Amino acid sequence: MKTNNLKEEVENLQYELSIVLEAMLLLAGVEKNKLEKAVEAYIDCIDEVCQKTQKEGAEEVLEVVEYLKNHHKDLFQ
């Protein structure tokens, strides 16, 4: 039973994180109709961008958003 609770907690956290990611991208200027593509682009480039930066935490996440703005301009308003 404890395993099911842990699995459910992980699923809930994944859901919440996906919502936060979408909200962040919308606030950054991603067009709503391109949100799914922007999420995919974010996930695809996060490792590459993070390997090239010295930033950590929130600054690291913002670095990925800046990368998207520079390399995927079509996603933004």
Describe the structure.
With 77 residues, this protein is mainly alpha-helical. The protein has one domain. α2 packs across α3. 10% of the residues are buried.
Give the SSE layout.
Layout: H1 2-27, H2 35-51, H3 58-71
Helix pairs in contact: 1-2, 2-3
Low-pLDDT stretches are none
Find the structural class using helix and strand composition.
mainly alpha
Instruction: Report Rg.
Output: 14 Å
* Integer count of domains: 1
**N-to-C SSE series?**
HHH
Main beta-sheet annotation:
none
The backbone outline, from C-alpha atoms, is globular
Helical fraction? over 70%
Provide the residue-averaged pLDDT: 94
Can you give keywords for this protein?
77 residues, 3 helices, 74% helix
Short structural summary:
The protein is mainly α and 77 residues long. It has three helices and no strands. Helix 1 crosses helix 2 (35-51) and helix 2 packs across helix 3 (58-71).
